[in-house]
């Protein structure tokens, strides 16, 4: 039971036109009436103009917005004070409310109370933080979709399907002597489980791509010296981020940049040219470049179209064979593109570009095709971008897979039911039907103040 009343700035503590201070809890009305020049009645959705006062001293001229439980974000009595946006005046009002009996809120505590009061579920709670931290149009769309709660029915549908299977099995266990009661064949069970697993697998696949998009796609630029890697970085960034020179080995360390490419965010990493060298500093740069391969989501192998494919480039192609990649033929302005030997790359994504002419549209299109597709942002698509949420779904998938295998291998149905119960319970964890207080505290502590 929540018994105290909390206060925090809902806007950043910076100089601005208007600041908002949020007060939530059972004593919200009592506290505001201790410091406000007018009586704030406990009525629905009022806006009241007046002054915040410390006894006879006027601190600020404000607008008070009042909400009565349960018709507020937190589900509690809530007062929002719209004051002038100076840092000093904002902190003075907060300090005054604390002096009168409020407690300064922990990060994310307003959202935590909204969850505990059944105003939002855990998917919506995560979406609030995702919305605040969104860096591109797609991650913003993920957050809005999940915040609207339009996809909760999917999780409930999967739980209902599992519950139906569990109930049928338990009837067969408890009343085996009655024919036709809860009777379900192994074939029917496996068919239902295959269908359910396929849906869960689809959401996991979309969510993993969604997480990469939400965090920013780590794009690694690799190639021999002097093939135009740094020029490509500069063309993508639309600024002179890296030094460009005709001298091989100019880039000897990691150069990073971040851009929004339409609905995607790219974390671009330019590296030293890969070649055999005796220069110790260049060797360190090449070693760093190779180490970056592991954390890259997408590798751009840059090749000079005007030169034969070298041994170093062939080694790079082998080194990155298991990575998602695009083969980028640069300096296409120097040759007839029809003479390029592309047959050996017929299973690869290919982009023909010219960084000297800033002609990189083909590469941009390939990146977009690799990561952005319509199903991700459809209103009825559930895309979870939190690692813990995806992990829970993967566990659900594994339990359903185990149940299926146990049925196929003629294990007793009560053993099958153990896995199905676990999958059903984990889906509850996903929306917050079951939760651990410590886990909740950790999760909401990542939010900003006032959320």
Automatic annotation (TrEMBL):
Q: What EC number(s) does the entry state?
A: 3.6.-.-
Gene Ontology BP annotations: tRNA methylation; tRNA wobble uridine modification
An example of a GO molecular function for this protein is:
identical protein binding
| Subcellular localization | Cytoplasm
Q: Which UniProt keywords apply?
A: Cytoplasm, GTP-binding, Hydrolase, Magnesium, Metal-binding, Nucleotide-binding, Potassium, tRNA processing
Task: Give the protein's function.
Answer: Exhibits a very high intrinsic GTPase hydrolysis rate. Involved in the addition of a carboxymethylaminomethyl (cmnm) group at the wobble position (U34) of certain tRNAs, forming tRNA-cmnm(5)s(2)U34.
* Protein name per Swiss-Prot or TrEMBL: tRNA modification GTPase MnmE
Q: Which organism is it from?
A: Spiroplasma chrysopicola DF-1
Q: What is the lineage of its organism?
A: Bacteria, Bacillati, Mycoplasmatota, Mollicutes, Entomoplasmatales
Gene encoding the protein: mnmE
